[in-house]
Specification:
heterodimer, A: mainly beta, 6-stranded mixed beta sheet, 5-stranded antiparallel beta sheet, B: 7-stranded mixed beta sheet, 4-stranded antiparallel beta sheet, 11 strands, 0% helix
Chain lengths: 110, 114
């Protein structure tokens, strides 16, 4: 089983739609969780950290479910500019090793 | 404020050769991590350098080695190149002690091994 698993997609959604991605992780001792965004042939950029209580940044909402060992990302009112690959990242307790998922591709269609 | 820079941007090598990739961290950052990203995959952690020491290593063979200099810049060396080493190599910098996880990535070096 992979340490961090994501549905690779692609998710094709119309502009204005709401879309959600999930990511599961295998190490229950993991402590820190993040979503990164990566545009085609570009470097990953931090989208948001994921807190136990959940957090929101504009149209983006991230949730953590420790019991089921998954994190989620919800994007509301999708824009064409949201088209990208969304990478789930997990950092274990007492380690500096960041584990990335394979990413989920999102295409927002006009 | 300069971000993370990497050189070269592209590189073509043949099997068995050696390569050195370079990274300058974001101004004020003291920690550098290196990643390998194959096509269609997420970045894979190679190692992290802090205070000129390798403090964490991923599942990569000893052919992959690195160095961090007193000015915090870093090099990644790969010996005896294999076809499977073809990938985008990303450098990420962060500041020790600041909120964990906020890494800033450079644009990467695309390595092709023929």
């Amino acid at each position: 089983r992979k340490e961090v698993e994501q549905d690779p997609g692609p998710f094709n959604v119309p502009e204005g739609a709401t879309v959600a991605f999930n990511c599961t992780y295998s190490n229950s001792a993991s402590q820190s969780f993040f979503w990164y965004r990566q545009d085609c042939r570009k470097e990953p950029k931090l989208l948001m950290s994921v807190y136990s209580s959940g957090n929101e940044d504009g149209r983006f909402t991230a949730q953590l479910n420790r019991a089921s060992q998954y994190i989620s990302l919800l994007i509301r009112d999708s824009k064409l500019s949201d088209s990208a690959t969304y990478l789930c990242v997990v950092l274990g307790s007492g380690t500096y090793k960041y584990i990335f998922g394979t990413g989920t591709r999102l295409k927002v269609l006009a | 404020d300069a971000g993370v820079t990497q050189s070269p941007t592209h590189l073509i090598k043949t099997r068995g050769q050696q390569v050195t990739l370079r990274c300058s961290p974001k101004s004020g950052h003291d920690t550098v991590s290196w990643y390998q990203q194959a096509l269609g995959q997420g970045p894979q952690f190679i190692f992290q350098y802090y205070e000129e020491e390798e403090r964490q290593r991923g599942n990569f063979p000893d052919r992959f080695s690195g160095h961090q200099f007193p000015n915090y810049s870093s090099e990644l060396n790969v010996n005896a190149l294999l076809l499977g080493d073809s990938a985008l190599y990303l450098c990420a910098s962060s500041l020790q002690g600041v909120f964990v996880g906020e890494q800033f990535f450079g644009p990467g070096t695309r390595l092709t091994v023929l």
